[in-house]
Amino acid sequence: MKLYLPYWAALLAAGALPPPSARAQVPAAPFGLTAPGSLRGTVLDSTNSEPVPYATVVLLPAVAPPDEPIAGVTTSDRGRFAMANLAPGAYRLRVSCLGYGTQTRAVLVGPTGPTEAGPFHLPPAATALAGAVVVGEKPLVEVRPDRLVYHAAQDVTNAGGSAADVLRKAPLLTVDGKGTPRLRGSANFTVLVNGRPAPALAQNLAEALRSIPAAQIQRVEVITAPSARYDGEGTAGIINIVLKKGAERSLHGDVYAAAGTRDANSGGSLNFQKGKIRFSTSLSAGRWYGPAGFSLERTDLARPGQLTQNGSGRSTGQSYYSALALDFDPTEHQGFSLAGSVNGWRGDDRQDVTTRYAGNPAQNQFQRRAIQSRSTGLSGELTGTYLRTFATPRREWSLVAQAARNDAAFGYNADQFDSFATPGTTGNASSRERSRSRTPGREFTVQTDFTQPFGEFCTLEAGGKAIYRRTGSVATTDAYQPDQEPDFVPQPDGATDFNYVQQVQALYATYAFRLTQKLSFSLGARAERTRLTVDFRTTGTQTGQVYAHVLPSGSAQYAFSEAKSLRLVYSRRITRPFIDYLNPFVNRSDPRNYEFGNPRLDPELADSYELSYNTLVKQVTVSVSASVRHTGNAIETVRGLASGYGLATDASGITAQTFANVAANTFYQLNGYVSAKPLKNWDLSGGPDMQYITRRSPALGIAQRGFTGGLSLNTSYVLPKNFTAQAVFSYSWPTPDLQGPGPADLHYSLGVKKSLWQEKADFVFTLDNPFHRYWPYRTRIETPEFAETQQYRAYQQAGRVTVTYRFGQAQEGRQRKTVANDDVKGNGGQQHGRQ
């Protein structure tokens, strides 16, 4: 099969190839001939047989000394490596990677065809002692050249929890009391599952994370500077949740059950392989419950007025998650896979809100409002993949198609009682209101990727992608005044009906090459075109927008040694708003605080620069990174008087919250992470995150700046008789948001695990925030019209017992190619209406 490269790709390849003198030398072949020998193999983690990407593979002379490298390559993201054009003979092959021990093996290159070097099983650095390979556990947090990896399956305190609990403990991440994650202080990021999108994550992240059990999560990858091969969305980076995969050969699986004071869940998985077919499936269901509370105090500055609100309530919910994957490899170089998942949830909230408004005598009010709200969501996706590899090492082509559906709904019933009337019976309600909204969604994606090596040290990746999204919102609001109408009457200002269509086409190319044995580069660009159509059916108007962007990226890495490297990365990212940012439906469940979206938002662009230093000293892994990220035309949450949006009169004292392109933000960040093993049975990891943030909004006349940061620690100790104890701590300081300081956050957990029945079963007991009944998330908003302080009480104190039983023998399976639609901005789990 011949390869025909586009003209621009050929120029890129020719221009980026290093000079001959800079390339690694291989054993000389006779003049005019090519050496016929070659080597290929894989590098795996000794603890779980997962591929080890970016490992260094060096070919050495058969006898030491000397140890002068003859040739060298880096493993792919699936842990594969290959060397070609080698003279037949005996050699040594040395494999190493940051965070792992080193292995050296004698190999004999044959005169014809490829020589299989076999798999290398690298032990974690902490278990490579005195030249002996000891199989043990890798560090809880692993530092890779382009990402930080949190191995959630090794964390005792995750037992029985959800994906939100797992993200709370991952490096550079925080999760507030409502389940909203932030990456290095920013909500503008993308979450993937197994490298591909789950549609529910873009629409309602907090609820979707609750429905994914922690027991099914293998690891969390935090990518702060993605390359051009990723979709351009997510200005702060990408969070990839990797679920546990199926078996390579024997039948195996697990079942688990957890019960606690805040949640309960159960589930299991089953995996097997028969011949060329692999199958895996998982199913889980759970529920959550607990009290909630909030308070608000607002002072009107433009006119006399004081608003005080206090609310209490209880939230409950149920969720389920199921996934199925089927792989078929008919030949050595061809593979087919089909993967699907279904994710659903329902949340119910009951609130009793007391409102006091004191202004001039005509406006003095006292009201109590009983609110019952429900949110539901159902999403599903089906992905088919064809993967074609070739006899040429590292060369492959893939074609992926995905169909997804994501439907969500939100509704509330509110009974208002004036003066001191007793809530609980609708007969004495002074007014009643009910609202229903739904946001159906459909998504179709086709993607193709091709990887072509040029020699041992140069690789060109190129591909294209097309996405079609269709969503919208249909909402109605009815009101009932007992003394005015006989029944509920539709409210025109509380209804909406609009349709939103988004089409994205993208092309990308990335060229990676090694200039010297220690210096390597990667250059890439992604061109994206977006077409939007918005149809407001209630008014019969239609609007549209077409925009195109080129998103360059590049990196340079210098390896001082096998255990020490310096990396410089640049990338440009784009943020497109999704349905919750665009939905114009005005939520009036709180008659003093309205919320609505803005369908005319523009995308935001961000430029990111990052310098990172990684090193391994004995058994201590250290990663330090400094970065600058600037976002122009940033999408911000803004609050103002509802009269400014034409939703109320000037004298009403009602505020409204929406989204707008009103700011330019710059984040100066310094992150550090250390993973160490002070004693044989003791693991310790953690580090600080310091930030200086500037936000400027000429449109609002606001300039905010200030320091913030956080600290995370994770420690575990292996005790006698198969006991393991673990503690997790994280704290983040308030952030300088656009209209005032955001909340601080505190979370800590204690856990003990006991392994039973020859480690086929685990019994885990965990405590979350045992010394705090709740954590107050306080925010303050200051505008020329009013000053407001809010407090949301998150009752996170909890205890949980989890029992897990494993059966069969698990082996790691082949990694599948997937779609990653990480190109839209969701609202991070924020829902219309007070939670």
TrEMBL record:
> Would the keyword Membrane be found if you checked this record's keyword annotation?
yes
* Region described as Disordered: 421-442, 812-835
Give the matching Gene3D superfamilies: Carboxypeptidase-like, regulatory domain (2.60.40.1120), TonB-dependent receptor, beta-barrel domain (2.40.170.20), TonB-dependent receptor, plug domain (2.170.130.10)
Tell where it localizes.
Answer: Cell outer membrane
A single Pfam family it belongs to is CarboxypepD_reg
Can you cite an annotated GO cellular component?
cell outer membrane
Listed SUPFAM superfamilies: Porins, Starch-binding domain-like
The Gene Ontology terms for molecular function here are: carbohydrate binding
The Outer membrane protein beta-barrel domain sits at 388-805
Keyword Phosphoprotein set for record: no
Name-wise, this protein is TonB-dependent receptor
- Native organism taxonomy: Bacteria, Pseudomonadati, Bacteroidota, Cytophagia, Cytophagales
